[in-house]
C-alpha cells in the first residue's frame, strides 16, 4: 500500500490555490478517464502545473483521490450536521425530505467522479468513513425523537437509513432518465415508512 500522506502542507495563499487547482484538475480527469486511466501527468496538465508541483503536495495518485474522498465525506457530514443541529426545528418527515434531496442532488452534480470515488476511495487506508461519521450524527437526532419512531434499535436504524439513502443516490447517477422530483418523493416515502412517521 502506497503512502497517502501529503508532501508539504501549503501555508501561503498561492500554494493553497495551487493545491486547489490540482484537486480540481484531478476531479475532472478522474471523471473523464476513470481512476485507473488517470495519471499524475494528466492531472498536472489539466491543473496547469508541472508534475513536480503535484508531488510537492501529494505523495501519489492515491493521496489525491483520498483527499477528494475526504472532502466529499466532509461535505455530506457537514450538511447532515447542519440539518440536525436543531432537532425540533422541523418535523421529522420534512427533515427526511431535506436530507434525501440534498444527497441526491450532491450525487447528480458529479455522477462520474462520485462513481469513481465510491469504487476506489473506501478501500484506501486512512480515509474518512462516511457511514460511521453520518451514523454518529444521525443517532443522537433519532434518540431525541425516539418516542415518535416505529423502530427502537436506533443505531441499527441509523445504519440502515444512511446505507439506503447513499445506496439509492449511487444507483440513481447511473440512471439519468429517472426524474429527480419523483425519485425524491419515493425515497422520502421509503424513509418515512421505515421510521413510521407521517
Pick out its properties:
single chain, 198 residues, mainly alpha
Structural class, from helix and strand content? Answer: mainly alpha
Q: Could you tell me the strand content as a percent range?
A: under 5%
Helix content: over 70%
Number of domains: 1
- Overall mean pLDDT stands at 90
Provide structural commentary:
The chain is mainly α and 198 residues long. The protein has a single domain (13-195), classed as Orthogonal Bundle (Tetracycline Repressor, domain 2), CATH 1.10.357. Helix content is 72%, strand content 0%. The chain has nine helices and no strands. It has helices at 13-37, 40-47, 51-57, 61-84, 92-109, 111-120, 130-144, 154-172, 180-195. Helix 1 crosses helix 2, helix 1 crosses helix 4 (61-84) and helix 5 crosses helix 9. The longest helix is centred in the first third of the chain and has 25 residues, at 13-37. Residues 1-8 have low confidence and may be disordered.
Topology of this structure?
Elements: H1 13-37, H2 40-47, H3 51-57, H4 61-84, H5 92-109, H6 111-120, H7 130-144, H8 154-172, H9 180-195
Helix pairs in contact: 1-2, 1-4, 1-6, 4-5, 4-7, 5-8, 5-9, 7-8, 8-9
In short:
Helix content is 72%, strand content 0%.
Amino acid at each position: 500500500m502506497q503512502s497517502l500522506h501529503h508532501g508539504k502542507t501549503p501555508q501561503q495563499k498561492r500554494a493553497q490555490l495551487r493545491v486547489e487547482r490540482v484537486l480540481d484538475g484531478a476531479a475532472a480527469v478522474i471523471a473523464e478517464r476513470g481512476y485507473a486511466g488517470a495519471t499524475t501527468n494528466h492531472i498536472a496538465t489539466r491543473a496547469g502545473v508541472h508534475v513536480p508541483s503535484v508531488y510537492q503536495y501529494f505523495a501519489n495518485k492515491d493521496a489525491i483521490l483520498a483527499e477528494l474522498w475526504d472532502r466529499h465525506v466532509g461535505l455530506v457530514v457537514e450538511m447532515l450536521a447542519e440539518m440536525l443541529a436543531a432537532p425540533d426545528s422541523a418535523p421529522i418527515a420534512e427533515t427526511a425530505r431535506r436530507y434525501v434531496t440534498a444527497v441526491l442532488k450532491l450525487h447528480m452534480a458529479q455522477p462520474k467522479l462520485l462513481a469513481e470515488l465510491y469504487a476506489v476511495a473506501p478501500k484506501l487506508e486512512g480515509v474518512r468513513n462516511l457511514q460511521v461519521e453520518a451514523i454518529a450524527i444521525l443517532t443522537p437526532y433519532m434518540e431525541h425523537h425516539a418516542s415518535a419512531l416505529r423502530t427502537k434499535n436506533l443505531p441499527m436504524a441509523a445504519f440502515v437509513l444512511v446505507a439506503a439513502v447513499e445506496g439509492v443516490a449511487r444507483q440513481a447517477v447511473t440512471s439519468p432518465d429517472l426524474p429527480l422530483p419523483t425519485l425524491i418523493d419515493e425515497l422520502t416515502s421509503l424513509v418515512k415508512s421505515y421510521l413510521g412517521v407521517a
